[in-house]
C-alpha cells in the first residue's frame, strides 16, 4: 500500500485528493503547505473528531487535541525530547535491526484511525 502512495505522488505531484472510506482526504508533501497546516495560526485546520478506538489509542494529546492549552503543554514536552542532542543520542542507541516506520506508513496509520 505504501508503494501505491509513491505511485500516486509520482503521477499527481506533491498534493492530491483521494477518498478514504466515505470521506475525502487531502494528501500533501509540499513543505510550505505542511508548514501552514501545522502552524495553523488562524485555526483554519481542525483535527477531525476521533472514534472511540482512536481516542483510546492516542488519548487527548498533541496529535489529537483541539484544546490550545493542552496542545501547547504537549508541544512543549515533545520539543524537549526532540532537540538535536536528544535525537543524536537516540539514533546512536537504536538497534540497527529495528525497522522504523516510514512517513507514509505513519500517514496511513493515522488516516485509518482518524477516519474510522
UniProtKB/TrEMBL annotation:
It comes from Amborella trichopoda. One of its GO terms (cellular component) is membrane. GO terms for molecular function: heme binding; iron ion binding; monooxygenase activity; oxidoreductase activity, acting on paired donors, with incorporation or reduction of molecular oxygen. Coiled coil: none annotated. Gene3D superfamilies: Cytochrome P450. Pfam families: p450. This is Cytochrome P450. It is found in: Membrane. Belongs to the cytochrome P450 family. It comes from the Eukaryota. InterPro entries: Cyt_P450, Cyt_P450_sf, Cytochrome_P450_Monooxygen. Keywords: Heme, Iron, Membrane, Metal-binding, Monooxygenase, Oxidoreductase, Transmembrane, Transmembrane helix. The chain crosses the membrane at residues 98-115.
